[in-house]
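User: Could you check the structure of this?
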Amino acid sequence: MMKKMSKESKQRLQQIFQCGQFVLRWGFIPTVLYLGFKRGADPGMPDPTVLSLLWG
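Assistant: Sure, the predicted structure tokens are below.
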């Protein structure tokens, strides 16, 4: 049987989940962009720049 969690434990878990959601929502696209710039372009393609992303 599962032991009942205290109110403080529930609040702490809820706060951890909310923090995780925030990190996933606001960190996903910057992480993808960072990894794309770090890896560079495929052979034969021009190097990516921030301006090329904005105008593309």
